[in-house]
């Protein structure tokens, strides 16, 4: 008897939850929001199914062509709040007979819906700018993962998200280093003004007790020549005992400009093969400006030691190669590790870039 009551209660809760969800999406449609057909059904339905799918990221390519139209429906996902009905539905779901589970939508916690919505908006970039107000609200989400991805999403939207700057600038003073570095990156991408992002990233990189120094180095590299005042702290990080931090600092120095040449050439003699490779790649990025390092790179052509350094940049078709073109919405920078390669091969590639027409 008790089991039947539980099943009946669960079915009622499921009906209430599903009805509430669909009513919300239909209300948006009734308000005049565009609801084009996508993969044989309304966009609102597609978004609802995407936000309840564990494999939601695979739908990013489908949503990109209709990003502007999808943004309002994803914003509804951002506004989902945890309710007793939804929480009970999630808890009772595993206890339901399989016959019931086949006929009902699998429940999803509201915080998971918000996370999926914010990650999708992060991937859609500036065309999803209609979601800016809700993304700003999510900067204070009680789920830290949601708030962090909201920060990244606002940065990816760019200048249109300037209304988020007051909140982002407050987050620059957070006690959490990940919040500080991602807020600094977002503020830079929105304003293209060095400060206060530059000082924040320099401060985090100079610390020795945080796991986000890699991000500070990578994001300073994204700032390019605007990060020239950070050359001293990047040069110090290029000799860091953490090889991943050192490698990312080397790449950032190359992005800053030829002023970093002395540091890059010094690292060509580093004991770690991965750092010699990273320094060679960085010199290659400088192209003809790095001709002073050509003789040292030539001396490394017979260096058969192998390494696998960490990088921040764009992946090409071949994962072991990097495309160092300027960032864009369709090819955002990402963290990746080179496949093991010889130092000599990296030196040869750098020389080819230096002497390229």
What is the rounded Rg? Answer: 24 Å
Strand order of the largest sheet: 5-4-6
CATH fold type of the largest domain: Leucine-rich Repeat Variant
Oligomer: single chain
How many strand units?
7
Number of helical stretches of at least 4 residues: 19
Distance between the termini: 82 Å
Q: Can you characterise this structure?
A:
The protein has 357 residues and is mainly α. It folds into two domains: 134 residues, no CATH class; 162 residues, Alpha Horseshoe (Leucine-rich Repeat Variant), CATH 1.25.10.10. 58% of the residues lie in helices and 6% in strands. It has 19 helices and seven strands. The protein has a three-stranded antiparallel sheet with strand order 5-4-6. A two-stranded antiparallel ribbon has the order 1-2. A two-stranded antiparallel ribbon has the order 3-7. Strand 4 and strand 5 form a beta hairpin. Helix 15 packs parallel to helix 17. The chain starts with a helix and ends with a helix. About 6% of the residues have low confidence.
Features:
mainly alpha; three-stranded antiparallel beta sheet; 19 helices; 2 domains; Leucine-rich Repeat Variant; about 60% helix
